[in-house]
Amino acid sequence: MGQHLAIMVGGPCEQIPSLKDIHSKELIWIGVDRGAVRLLEQGIVPQIALGDFDSVTKEELKHIKKEIADVRVYQAEKDETDTELAVQIAFDEFKPDNVSIYGTTGGRMDHLLNNIYMIFQPKLFQYASKIRLLDVQNTISYFTPGTHSLTKEQDKRYLAFVCLSPVEQLTIKDAKYRLTNTNFVHPISLASNEFVSNTVSFSFESGIIAVIQSKDNET
């Protein structure tokens, strides 16, 4: 049985689900920059903490180094973002079946877009189907060409098919709004679809699609 790995990034706290509902003894954590502080505050010791740590104080970094055995400090001036480094390390060193990333939404828009599009990095593209971005309202999963089945998350209502590239022959079955062998020549978000049962099936022949399950803000 493969392992599940989770990465905590330093995005806004209000966008992060309750860690009590996420954490388990089997779950491997990587803390990225301020995400390492956030995990320690919740009593979770990640296996690795990494980043340039420009968003933590000297005292917080000292605490990180005291509590976490493997701390990797990088220069701020580098080609990869801290999150991209964490994802690459996750697959290189742990070879997980899937990676869930928290703290990547909200806050600065450039960070959000970088996180959504990081799967196009040549080193990461091969792992796209194993990566998810999650917050309190959304789960973003990536799909490459083929036939796929989605299972409804219990608390989610909406379903979006986001074509991150040109997509050929997209067919959506068993959803409120269906498609048959439809081509899209540019990126487009097919938003506000819905499940009508617990599963939806879809297929396409070329391109890459991000599927978002979401719910309205409850506040």
Summarize the structure in words:
The protein is α/β, with parallel strands linked by helices and 219 residues long. The protein has two domains: 4-136, Rossmann fold (3-Layer(aba) Sandwich); 142-214, 3-Layer(aba) Sandwich (Rossmann fold), CATH 3.40.50.10240. Helix content is 20%, strand content 35%. The chain has five helices and 14 strands. It has helices at residues 34-41, 58-67, 82-93, 109-117, 122-125; strands at residues 4-8, 28-32, 48-51, 70-73, 98-102, 131-134, 138-143, 146-151, 158-163, 167-173, 179-184, 188-194, 199-204, 209-214. The strands form two sheets. It has a ten-stranded mixed sheet with strand order 4-3-2-1-5-6-7-14-9-12, sandwiched between helices. It has a four-stranded antiparallel sheet with strand order 8-13-10-11, with no helix packed on it. The longest helix has 12 residues, at 82-93. The radius of gyration is 18 Å and the shape is globular. The chain starts with a strand and ends in a 5-residue tail after the last strand. The model has no long low-confidence stretch (mean pLDDT 93).
